[in-house]
Write a structure and sequence with these properties.
It contains nine helices and twelve strands. With about 250 residues, it is an alpha/beta fold. It has two domains: about 170 residues, P-loop containing nucleotide triphosphate hydrolases (Rossmann fold, 3-Layer(aba) Sandwich), CATH 3.40.50; about 70 residues, no CATH class. Bound molecules: adenosine-5'-triphosphate. The site of adenosine-5'-triphosphate (ATP) has 10 residues, from helix 1. Belongs to the ABC transporter superfamily. It holds the Pfam family ABC_tran. Keywords: ATP-binding, Cell membrane, Hydrolase, Membrane, Nucleotide-binding, Translocase, Transport. This is Putative enzyme.
Length: about 250
């Protein structure tokens, strides 16, 4: 069955982009970082991932994209198993700290890096770099030194490095951390308009409310709740039991 999405693209209803089957991971024997995580993320969904410090959000992202090898369970992206350690252009991760993503002498080189590693022809790489920088609104930074950019500029360039690989699934780890109001607003508009299947880990619950149609709450590596952001985040008991607060905009709605 086909339907029109919000972006007027034809998509297959209920096509699954991310499948996690009974996923578990621990950094050490004493404590599990992820326990029995089962999830299906539908193509085109924008999913928020919330939870207190240390809940396992970054760990879950690293397991989904194959940077970490799960202790048990498996991950499928677009119905194909993820092989830990192997580059998979279908999925991209925007790191919490843009400095972990930017290491080349120029913005152009950084944004080209992933696309070049996919073995694309030089003219295709150039085209992708220009398209990615234009989508994030930072084409004017193409010749700059990444290291010298502001926090907001680095954030959008880091996102561009992932967009240039044109993954269908993108994981954003704390994308609004350290952004000023204007840069945060630009990021929110960008995320709202994005057409990929996305997961966004964030402590910025208002951002999740504005961007996401589903939210997943983690506590000590377990999924505690999964559903509509307004519903989950307005549940005061649930939020407080998980060391979170009901976002301001929901406390003032009647
Ligand atoms: N490299 C590591 N070695 C050992 N333990 C780790 C490592 N990275 C994370 N952990 C532990 O795993 C747990 C989950 O951490 P993780 O960074 O995934 O949480 P998070 O939800 O992303 O937290 P935050 O909101 O603070 O970014 C924490 O207890 C953390 O101390």
């Amino acid at each position: 069955m086909k339907e029109l999405t919000r972006n007027n693209q034809v998509s297959l209803t209920n096509t699954v982009s991310i499948t996690l089957n009974n996923l578990g991971f621990n950094y050490s024997k004493e404590r599990a970082a992820l326990t029995d995580v089962n999830l299906k993320i539908i193509t085109g969904e924008k999913v928020g991932l919330i939870g207190a410090n240390g809940a396992g959000k970054t760990t879950l992202f690293m397991a989904i994209c194959g940077i970490l090898t799960p202790n048990y369970g498996d991950v499928q992206i677009l119905n194909r198993p993820i092989v830990p350690g192997r580059f998979n252009p279908d999925i991209g991760l925007v790191f919490q700290n843009p400095d972990d993503q930017l290491f080349c002498p120029t913005v152009r080189d950084d944004v080209a890096f992933g696309a070049e590693n996919m073995g694309l022809a030089p003219h295709e790489v150039t085209e992708r770099v220009e398209t990615a920088l234009s989508l994030t609104g930072v084409s004017h930074l193409i010749d700059r030194i990444p290291h010298h950019l502001s926090g907001g500029e680095k954030c959008m360039v880091a996102i561009s490095t992932v967009l240039a690989m044109q993954p269908q699934v993108i994981l954003y780890d704390e994308p609004s951390a350290n952004l000023d109001l204007k840069a945060r607003r630009r990021l929110i508009r960008f995320l709202q308009a994005s057409s990929e299947t996305i997961m966004i880990s964030s402590h910025d619950l208002e951002l999740i409310l504005e961007v996401c149609d589903r939210v997943i709450l983690l506590n000590q590596g377990r999924v505690i709740a999964d559903g509509l952001p307004q519903k989950i985040m307005s549940d005061r008991v649930l939020m407080e039991n998980n060391n979170l607060e009901v976002p301001h905009s929901l406390t003032h709605k009647h």
